Amino acid sequence: MSALFSPYRLGSLHLKNRIAIAPMCQYSAVDGKASDWHLMHMGAMTLSGAGLFCIEAAAVLPEGRISPADLGLWSDDTEAALSKVLSAVRKYSIMPIAIQLAHAGRKASTHVPWQGGKQCLAQDGGWQTFAPSALAHNPHDCPPLALDHAGMQRICQAFVEAALRAHRIGIDAIEIHAAHGYLLHQFLSPLSNQREDEYGGSLENRMRFPLQVLAAMRAALPADKVIGIRVSATDWVAGGWDLEQCLVFAQALQSLNCSFIHVSSGGVSPLQNIPASAGYQVEFANRIRQHTGMPTIAVGLITEPAQAEAIIAEGQADMVALARAILYNPHWPWQAAAELGASVEVAPQYLRSQPLGHANLLVASKSLT
């Protein structure tokens, strides 16, 4: 039996296989509200045959968006728009759905990538950014305002309220975004956090705010709600956040009943030097899994079925996540199942697509027949 296509229990969720679809920003929302594009995109992803789909980073406050076109979950209007999309998707897919909740901090207020991705100024629809310290991400950017304690409390409460909205509309799991140089990662890294209060300086202090966010969300939601986190295991910059600090952070997350850890890297500094190659972040996930025993998701240039199979079979991670690879090939799990001699559940409308020589590849999802 294929390890990649073995079932997996992630907290209270029963997953059909070990393939997760990582959150991927679509930059297609209007004032934070999900659009018809999200219906098309989420429809494709949730019919892909993966075990879990994670909706893109949803900002918990308007000023926490990466761009003016980012998805949000901070108001009744943004909640209603996303609920409408989910209701349509769930008519045809039973795939468990997670959402990533985020605040971009000093990396907020940028143009969408296909318009250059540089900082978006006020006259172009941008806004003042906030961060742990008044340090710009890029030298040419306007510096953020350093958050005071009241501002931090407002953001923490916004994470809680967004999580409650997600729970209310039936989202199965929540991933806190503490990676890729966004706000919670900015608190963790000494490159972006130069505070002199109890939230800066020592590792214990730099971890304090992200841990407070998790603790507040955990206290507000049912005890069996799956709440995980995405981390950057290293900044890839000397003197920055690194794996050894991340291992300490992971232990602290575990003590707060964190459901899983999704292991990425980089994003906090333009000085990063990432040695990208196939599966280049898998060893980080492996080390964290060995150190804590937490359910761990590996991500990053995992593109081939045999590669993904080996990661699971060798115990390097509990799940693998795909991003660009599944945008390129939305039926990547079908291809993987064919190569690995496994089967995958599909909507009955797709059963006739089963290729010759793979009589047991596609199986009708029982709840949709």
Helix content: 25-40%
User: Separation of termini?
Assistant: 26 Å
Structural class call reads: alpha/beta
Task: Please mark out the parts with pLDDT under 50 across 5 or more consecutive residues, or reply none.
Answer: none
Explained architecture:
The structure is a single chain. The mean pLDDT is 96. By secondary structure, the chain is α/β, with parallel strands linked by helices. The chain has an eight-stranded parallel beta barrel with strand order 3-4-5-8-9-10-11-12, surrounded by five helices. The longest helix has 20 residues. Helix 1 crosses helix 2, helix 3 runs parallel beside helix 5 and helix 5 runs parallel beside helix 6. The radius of gyration is 20 Å and the shape is globular. Helix 6 links the parallel strand 9 and strand 10. The chain contains ten helices and 14 strands. 32% of the residues lie in helices and 16% in strands.
